[in-house]
Amino acid sequence: MAISTTTKRIYNFSAGPATLPLPVLEEAQRDLMALPGAGASVLEISHRSPTFDKIIGDAEADLRHLLNIPDNYVVLFLQGGATLQFSMVPVNLMRGRPADYVKCGTWSKKAMDEAKKEGEARVVWDGSADKFNRMPEASEIKVNADAAYLHVTSNETIEGVEYHTDPHLPGATVVCDASSDFLSRPMDVSRYGLIYAGAQKNVGPAGAVIVIMRKDLLEGTPAKLHTMLDYKVMADNKSLYNTPPVFTIYMVGLVLRWLRTEVGGLPGMLKKNQEKANLLYSAIDRSGGFYKGHAQPQSRSLMNVTFRLPSEELEKKFVKEAETRHMDGLKGHRSVGGIRASIYNAFPYEGVEALVELMDEFHQKNS
Amino acid sequence: MAISTTTKRIYNFSAGPATLPLPVLEEAQRDLMALPGAGASVLEISHRSPTFDKIIGDAEADLRHLLNIPDNYVVLFLQGGATLQFSMVPVNLMRGRPADYVKCGTWSKKAMDEAKKEGEARVVWDGSADKFNRMPEASEIKVNADAAYLHVTSNETIEGVEYHTDPHLPGATVVCDASSDFLSRPMDVSRYGLIYAGAQKNVGPAGAVIVIMRKDLLEGTPAKLHTMLDYKVMADNKSLYNTPPVFTIYMVGLVLRWLRTEVGGLPGMLKKNQEKANLLYSAIDRSGGFYKGHAQPQSRSLMNVTFRLPSEELEKKFVKEAETRHMDGLKGHRSVGGIRASIYNAFPYEGVEALVELMDEFHQKNS
Lengths: 367, 367
Description:
Two copies of one chain form a homodimer. Chain A is of the alpha/beta class. The first copy, chain A, has nine helices and 15 strands. A seven-stranded mixed sheet of chain A has the order 3-11-10-9-6-4-5, with helices on one face. Chain A has a three-stranded antiparallel sheet with strand order 12-13-15. In chain A, helix 1 (22-30) packs across helix 6 (246-261) and helix 3 crosses helix 4. The termini of chain A are far apart. At the A-B interface, strand 1, helix 1, helix 3 and helix 6 of A face strand 1, helix 1, helix 3 and helix 6 of B.
């Protein structure tokens, strides 16, 4: 059957939910009325059906392949976003001990606030004096032997700072909120006890969060946890204790397959992300201070590029001018202002070129 | 643009996720690449965008219109399904007092199990001796003055028993799990303190749960609740404290509009549901005991029609025979066996006709 569809698309620089790969959207659209062989839309199929067994099984297999996840880790697809993980992590893992947090931006602060409801959350590195403009070196982080875990945030979406390697912190159970740079580069999973990532930046639409967890951490979780907060129950039921977000997981599966088969896996993805980010940071650097990047160079995020213009008036004007050129979502987060260009995995190189062209012209006209 | 799509569809009797209205699927498919005027897929748009403001605002307005929701109630769109509500209800509302539960089937038992983790959960009516084959009359339910709330389940999906009116229990704060018959009939919201319903039966795809809550219950919720469990935070942020399941809420909105504009609201929907259920129960009743309905007549569910055949062998054969006729999802829940035909709002009358035709023929051939 052939249908007419709407296809006029802009460059969407939103921080999340964010741009998805075109081939993924096209396949989802093609099969929306009825998944081939299933006789029903993926929006309608039972989560106990063989069709969905294959969808979630393939998604897990592709994720394991992409990240080379060791066998002693489980993969979970849950609901509630990273925000529910801010609670699930301390509820499951603190067990009466203090937990350590690297305070490197808005989201790590939010994660810590939930941990404080459960027990003692200690700051082991604090970037607030520098307005969160860099990530710490591993050597700056004090690892405490009595900590239940050490929480890091691999990319701070609002400030635009990112770790570019996996922190090597022997002796610590490292828990990582990887929501906004998950699958943007290869990752050494074995350095972490637990990794979680909301889907809506690099992995799919909003409505699912992926958890990768070392199996030994499932032992000894507290008794009488509420079921939806209990990693052990979720793992024992292979993410199907209750009805999961079937369509969201299907979309995540399509994105994972795209990463494997069309992008060249995570090394291929990293190369593309570096090319896009380099193009944009170069435009900032050659502007002679007209555009001022927020992050220190060694911590510049490849995902969220944050910068200021000489005045708030010029920033407003810049955002408006971008909109006339079909570029949306460039206004910085209300808490920090400025400009933020989120250029996640699926964001096209051509969109960055269009932004850089605008930046050069805008600078010339307004200086 | 015109695209080729897959459209071969079966009759899907699944208990949830379940069949969605065809016009809803068609509109979602048409606009999947780019929502008109937005320049991006609804799978990609920011939850802070004016486009999504309108989507969630329209959904709430349509829901308020359909159910005639009084102004002193808030409407929330949350994640985690009804299962997370099993916990959120006691966590927010018990406040050191006991809570009362009507034990009328599998799901009400599960709800009570979570409440027991929080405090004292008392059974005020128990249908287990009769294998949950009926709902209690309001007069059979003991209302205790010291209870924080009284929990009822309006339709038990697994056993196929349903209330057909709203329990009138003055003096009690009635909390209702309406997951599997929500919006199948008009409802007097003012009789309840809180109504919750997972979307994936009558209202949309899996991944969202709707909560309708009397505003005074938001006052005095416990301090230091984990944010994602806190109704007050969710209400104060109009369901946008963190990233909501944008696409799922969009789909719910399309279903609500379909109910308003194409079905004739909830009175129109109830009439259609009665017609479908009557057709099916009549086939059971005229079979002279070959098909045995589980529910007592006054509690028969219009949503989930459960019945047995003379033997498990015949039940297996019946399900197989149905599959050859493109009818799927008829196997009863593993905990009770038998046959279950879920015929929610969007399930077509023609599908019930096809099932009844099979039932008559199968009876003739196998007796």
